[in-house]
Write a structure and sequence with these properties.
This protein is mostly helical and 242 residues long. 75% of the residues lie in helices and 4% in strands. It is built from four helices and three strands. The protein has a three-stranded mixed sheet with strand order 2-1-3. Helix 1 runs antiparallel to helix 2. The C terminus is likely disordered.
Length: 242
């Protein structure tokens, strides 16, 4: 039976290592994905700012074209003033020139607002571009590290599963269901019995049961935590008569 306990010890250790590997198999892709999402999010923010700038530039160009056209119209109208024969026509054209100049003044104010928006956006875009370059550099470095670790975990995982299968083959078939049930519930299957106490839950063990554990004639589970109890070799001297 002590041989079976040794197998259980090895199997438990393998399962703990497999659990850790499986955690990493899920953890590293999640970490990589989170870092890639950070980069993607920063790029989207930058792209939105550039898109806004493009829209403001279109508006600015519209104002500039309209101002330019109005200035051309004013010039033509002012040249036409010298050709007008009647006072009424002169006044009407002068009024038109004044209104166009007023409109241009409003357009120039709006143009200044758009130019200020573009200038502010350009400063923000430059800042976000620098931040993105820094974040992308840092995140890519971390991604490479996580990918390398993930590759190492994948390399270790299959051999470890094969090692588990070998240990299962060496285990008594009647013990395996007990092992699997306890492992699923507690994460650990074995507990050392010492000084008539289970070191897994620190509950007292009846003296007769403790003596049976010392002899290892059968599998004995702790009445409280259900872990399989065993004694270290050096504990055999503690055996008591029933």
């Amino acid at each position: 039976m002590r041989e079976q306990i040794s197998v259980l010890e090895a199997l438990q250790q393998i399962d703990m290592e497999l659990n850790e590997l499986e955690t990493h198999l899920k953890e590293y892709p999640d970490k990589i994905s989170a870092l890639e999402d950070e980069i993607r999010s920063s790029k989207e923010i930058l792209e939105n700012l550039i898109s806004q700038k493009d829209e403001f530039i279109k508006v600015r160009s519209g104002f500039e074209n309209e101002i330019s056209q109005n200035q051309e119209n004013i010039k033509k109208s002012e040249e036409k003033l010298f050709e007008i024969k009647t006072h009424k026509e002169y006044q009407a054209l002068q009024k038109e020139i004044t209104e166009t100049k007023r409109l241009n003044a409003e357009l120039e104010d709006k143009l200044l607002v758009e130019m200020e928006k573009i200038e502010n956006l350009e400063a923000e875009i430059n800042q976000k571009t620098e931040q993105l370059e820094k974040k992308e550099s840092e995140n890519r470095e971390k991604i490479d590290e996580y990918q390398l670790e993930l590759d190492e975990v994948k390399v270790a995982y299959e051999p470890k599963k094969h090692e588990k299968e070998e240990k299962i083959q060496a285990l008594d078939p009647e013990i395996l269901p007990i092992y699997e049930k306890i492992m699923k519930k507690n994460g650990e299957v074995l507990a050392v019995a010492k000084n008539e106490m289970c070191t897994g839950c620190y509950m007292n063990i009846p003296a007769q049961m403790f003596n049976e554990i010392l002899t290892l004639t059968r599998i004995i589970q702790c009445p409280n935590c259900q872990k399989i109890l065993y004694c270290k070799e050096e504990s055999n001297s503690e055996a008591k008569t029933a």
